[in-house]
Amino acid sequence: xxVLRPALININGRMYRRNIIKEEHYExxxxxVSYMGPPESEDLADEETCDAIVIxxxxxxxxxxxxxxxxxxxxxxxxxxxxxxxxxxxxxxxxNIPKPGVEGQIVITGSQKAGVSSAVTRVEVLIExxxxxxxxxxxxxxxxxxxxxxxGFLSFKDEVLQQCSQDxxxxxxxxxxxxxxxxTIGTLALLNDTEVRKxxxxxxxxxxxxxxxxxxxxxxLEVTGIEYMNDDPAMVDILYAKVNVKDRSDKLQVIADRxxxxxxxxxxxxxxxxxxKLHATVMNTLFRKDSxxxxxxxxxxxxTSEREAFDARNILKTFGAYRFGEFKLNSVLLxxxxxxxxxxxxxxxxxxxxx
Length: 355
Known about the structure:
The protein is α+β, with helices and mostly antiparallel strands. The protein has a 4-stranded antiparallel sheet, covered by helices on one side. A 4-stranded antiparallel sheet has the order 9-8-14-15, covered by helices on one side. Strands 12-11-10-13 form a 4-stranded antiparallel sheet. Helices cover 28% and strands 27% of the residues.
């Protein structure tokens, strides 16, 4: 990190500077993020909390309660309570945190409103910083476990194994589970039930623009052709099926991009790309060593040495225009990672329909 150009965090329209300090408590470096106020000012009065936070006046001074998922408490407490003590000392406040594992509110009290405001700001910045390190728990998906598509996929799998099993790395264990065929739109780290409910509410809010795009009807899709994700077809890690709207319109892409835009604006998703890369994974080398990786949507990170690529040249040559089938898509799902429902697909925490 450059000292003169530190990384900045934007929280509710306010800019904060991220500083790196070494903490033995964590395996990684702990990030200490502080409010980036006017350079010439160090007074607490110059630190203002976000407008969405309400600071109440009490008989003893001022009080503010912040909703924080319990998994993030440890980052506010710090090693042996060091982070909390530093915050309390710097802001002349008291920070009350619920017991580990108990969902509740962090309550900040102090004799001066400016001190409480400063403490709230700093706690919010810490939360935002460490939230980004949490593994995702849910993802928005277009499910493709339609019986016709499943049948087409299983036929593809059988034919590939019959004709290309002699090619390097082509094995049965790198094929997707047919019950979990899907298109991933974006991932979310929802850290408690309140955040899951909030995400479900936001998904319902998207129904109007989705129905405007689909004209209130299911979207006819066709799954035809395969593609790979790297530059060398002889060393492939992921092979995916191509999905298109039957009328060749961009409706599916527009819906996906609008969904991401909505959830990013709501602070529930981090934007990774300018537009969603819609692809349905049919083969993934991560499945080779860990069958549970299907529950991550293929997003779990592994080093190159942990993956054994496969030679897809013959598969691409023989099955490049393979027709998996057609189906009508009628919903967007908030799917839960590491879960399975009665159909074999991911458990749905919420959904909205096209019609």
